[in-house]
Amino acid sequence: MARMSNALAHETGLTESGLTQFEADMLEFEASGHLAPEGKDAAILQRFGLSVPRYYQEINVLIDRPEALAHAPLLVKRLRRQRERRQQNRSARHLPFASTV
Prior knowledge:
Elements: H1 21-31, H2 40-48, H3 52-62, H4 66-71, H5 73-93
């Protein structure tokens, strides 16, 4: 049985796509461009009650779910591409430089 995260324990009800309202709100927040005057980090804490690292852990799990893709396909695909680029950039930084002889 899948373990429910602390963040997801707050929600009540499901959306039509099968996401909890909390999960749908997280996707909406990401889609909004988070134009909060206090900054994204403060907005995450205020709106979701999560630390910034925990928020990103939740988002990364969420965007792998088919329900999230059904709920916001363009957003989820964009977030997946961004994550993949970050992972590739991290991997590239750890590759040793090849010597040219």
